[in-house]
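Weekly modeling sync, notes
Attendees: AB, CL, MP (scribe)

Item 1: holo prediction request
CL wants a bound-state model with protoporphyrin IX containing FE before deciding which constructs to order. AB pointed out that an apo prediction alone won't tell us much about the pocket. Agreed to run with the ligand included and paste results into these notes for async review.

Input as submitted:
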Amino acid sequence: MSVTADQRELRDDALNGLQLSTRLDSLWRTPSGFLGALMSVDHKVVGRRYIVTAFVFLLLGGVLAILMRIQLAGPEQTFLSPDKYNQIFTMHGSTMMFLFAVPVMEAFAVYLVPLMVGTRNIAFPRLNAFSYWMFLFGGCFLWISFALNVGPDVGWFAYVPLSSLQYTPTKRPDVWAQMITFTEVAALAVAVEIVVTVFKLRAPGMTLDRIPLFVWAMLVTAFLVMFAMPSIMVASTSLILDRLVNTRFYDSSSGGHPLLWQHLFWFFGHPEVYIIFIPGTGMVSAILATFARRPVVGYPVVILSLIATGFLSFGLWVHHMFVTGLPQLGAGLFTASSMLIAVPSGLQIFCWLATLWDGRPVYRTPLLFVIGFIVIFVMGGLSGVMVASVPIDTQVHDTYFVVAHFHYVLIGGAIFPLIGAVYYWFPKITGRMLGERLGRWNFWLAFVGFNIAFFPMHILGLIGMPRRVYTYTADMDWAHLNLLSSGGALIFALSFALLLVNVIRSLRSGALAGDNPWDASTLEWATSSPPPPQNFDRIPVVKHREPLWLDGESLPVAAGLSVDRREVLLTSLAEAEPQTREASPEPSIWPLLTALATTVFFIGSIFTPWAVLWGTPPMAVALIGWFWPAGSREDEE
Amino acid sequence: MRQTIVRNVGDLPTYGYGPRSGPWWGAMGFMALEGMGFAIAIGAYLYLYAVNSSWPIGASPPDLWPGTAEVVIYLLSIIPNEFTNRAAHRQDLPKVRVGLIVMSLIGIVLLVLRGFEFAHLNTRWDNSAYGSIVWLILGLHTTHLATDLGDTVVLTVLMFTRHAKPRRFSDVTDNVFYWNFVVLAWLPLYALLDWVPRL
Ligand code: HEM
Ligand SMILES: [Cu+2]
């Protein structure tokens, strides 16, 4: 290393408090103006956009849910045509799973993980910006297609042969298949960023057993994404190839096989549920520790449960296929492993209950949502153990019992913790508190509305109402329960309207939060709210699992990073010993341009295979622009 | 909150090699998920193989020479690749330049050979599920070959400009590392595509 270059460089130990903040602020700030906004590589800016966009998709998916519930409120309604209904449940499922649930969890990680591990930016900030654009363009593409009446209509899992060219000769399944690719590219890239951020960018001293539980949860989730999502990309690419260039993957007349689709889909689809649920548990652990005013009981148990859940989730995909006529022994094995997964989840729940029991709980809104989560999730788990058994599954397969079950798991497991997380971290992200009174209303309406909406579906399923029917006749005796369910759905929807009101009001006039309004223990609360562009003026040094509780008012920090160029500190994998000071990328327009080129490529290839040829050069040019080190300060010297 | 400086990291280097560098871990991550993609594609191949009574379907197995020639070149390419790696660790710019040029040429040769391989598969993608999966797998690997080649060429050009800064040598070693993955991925795929249909 050249000593002269070192001496030229200004270090943070040469500056005092205010000078240092100002200097770092201007070094790390996103450029101003519209163009600057498009160039941002700050994980907080990207994360905020990601969160807001995902919530917009929740809103859209929710509107569709309400449309379905209006249609189903009484027998023989004509509010929606059968054809529209097909599109709507497909769009609802696809939007919720691919454009809301997974992205919103990764989005929270993009915002929070770098702060929680005490670093200045996520690993690969340009890739992060690219991920967001891909997600945005993929989502818009799906919804614009829907508006133009070419939205997909073959269910969120697009089973072949229904989705094959022969049965659906429109462009609808192609739209679905390409939307998958967009969102998966984004999800996979974010997963890699999270893994590397957690492995290499942790603050000095944050050994493996001092990593916050939310960060652990996101790490496990990122691995699940990396190992589950390639499967659906292979599946959907094969599907679109079958449709566009006549390959025969799923065509049984030429040696293909429809069940191949189901294997590929559920190899992804089952872990998908845990990709949504595990971050939820991370949020629960974070909130619980803060409001029970003590560390979560059984930290190692929780981590082992997370890892075990991750592993087990891959063994289970076949339970979605019990009714497809698998060999008996296989079915038995998968039943056993499906039930086994209840064990680690159960362990975590006991750890949380013990934390509450042993703590001095403060019942603020985030904690209410966590308690709501525990109640609903336990019920969803119980009906899950029921459908894991082959005889019961054979009975209730494709009835509303299943619809009830997975909404208990998804909404209980993900939405309740998520809304709790919104209340919990809103002050960090915006600098203002959400209203507590509205928050309580929000919680109770959500809890009551949710149960009224979804509990009756269990009964409807048991008395035979199939899923994915656009209406039913009066002599089936399903009308009362359906009306009740629709009423509950409206109450549930109202609770989200309250959340929106609360957010808008608080953005304008919420109480100022201060650095650490909940007196929490993890590092994101060690900086101001909202955090400055550089996150921390000096990188924290971690000596305990609960740094802010145990270090009181004087945080140990490290000095010596450059203030001339963007630098992050890399530490070793296990012990988090400082190793290098690596450059962190400057803002750039290229990730956006690359995403645009990729979008043209993907959408073009739906309409003509030639897009693969003329679509590639722009992508290559954009990628070279992205990686060419022009304009980076270290290369200007 | 008051802060106490307890350590100084100013002496640390501004880049590292291998597991000490961020991009190396990024490459690891992408190799893991791409490896998973290969594994899934292999699984799909074996699944279709298992559910069909005759394999390959309505075709003869691929001609052996293109794939085999690739195996040989891939294995030999490890030598200049490792040469580049060592030169990069020593920060020997002239040798790194030579190594990168050689690696770029090897990539081009392999890409051309790959064209012949497609032509000698003895099946089209739309003949049968057999043809489809063979083309998919070969296409998947070719994408890796082409992107790695693109990366190598850009890096080569970069090393002839003023951007050939010390930390770029770390990028070179990551490129070397990724090439090993492309090589390693080819071996099971070669066995699968060229030999399983001959079983
Ligand atoms: C306001 C809240 C919600 C209501 C009232 C609601 C209602 C419904 C209904 C009635 C169906 C069944 C459609 C049918 O089979 O005919 C359905 C399907 C589905 N819902 Fe929801 N839902 C809500 C929220 C969610 C959320 C938050 C998620 C995921 C995170 C979700 C995921 C799904 C999925 C994956 C399907 C299956 C779609 C398909 O079969 O293609 N829902 N929902
Ligand atoms: Cu499952």
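Recorded for review: Strands of chain A lie at 539-540, 554-559, 567-571, 578-583.
Action items: CL to compare against the apo run; MP to circulate these notes.
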